[in-house]
Amino acid sequence: MDELAQARVELTLLEEKARDLLKQLLDIRTTIATQRAKIDELSRTSLRPNIINRLPTEILVFILDLDVHTHHYLERKQKLASVCQRWCDVILQTPCFWSTIYVASDASSVNTHLERSRGTLLDIVIQGAPFSLPSKYLALLPGLDIAMDCAHRWRSLLVTASYYSIDDNDGDEELLTDFIADRINHLHFPSLKSVTISPLCDVGSLDFLSIARAPALEHLEHGEFMTIHDIFNPVAMLKTLKLNFDTGRPVDHLAC
Q1: Structure pTM?
Q2: Of 154, 48, 99, nearest in space to 91 by CA
Q3: Which of 18, 51, 168, 234 is positioned for an S-S bond with 210, CB 3.0–4.6 A?
């Protein structure tokens, strides 16, 4: 083979190699674009959870606790615990997620909350009909009796009405607040600082609000009440008192 023919063969080989390299370059660019799109998608779906999971436990607890208390407490806590194993472990092992006791829950749930709260102060929530037959309050007794054993740990009490129940025999009806007062008036609440009662109540019957029973009480709010006789006397250590009258306009009293 003469020199010219050999040069032409070498040129052909180089051109084929160039085409192969160009094809590889295009394939690599396509792969790069695909990988970049994958990274962008993963960043959108997993970057924030990863950032949260890298947070110190104390900050994660603060965020989760804030979220729990801005939604339905029990349902939200369960949903957050199902997000990942770390969140589940944090919620199970942190007392603040178990310090709110819904008295209407079954006894096993109340006991679980008391056990996992590990001696921390408790926020007690009692919900029922504002007035009804005494028998209709019996569902509250198991949880209430358990919570009463920890009266020294009560930090706050919220009594709220979920619905109205009107019976034909008015004489047999009882105020929810009277029912509760009959059960807890004899107890002492050394750590109780806040009480909110939304359904109708007779202030005079709530002996557990007295200084002798709740010496640390600072905040008291009544949704509706029948009498104001001596309302300030038994709770003279209050810092804030909020009374909602029939007009629907709240009246705030600041006590120094």
Answers
A1: 0.68
A2: 99
A3: 234
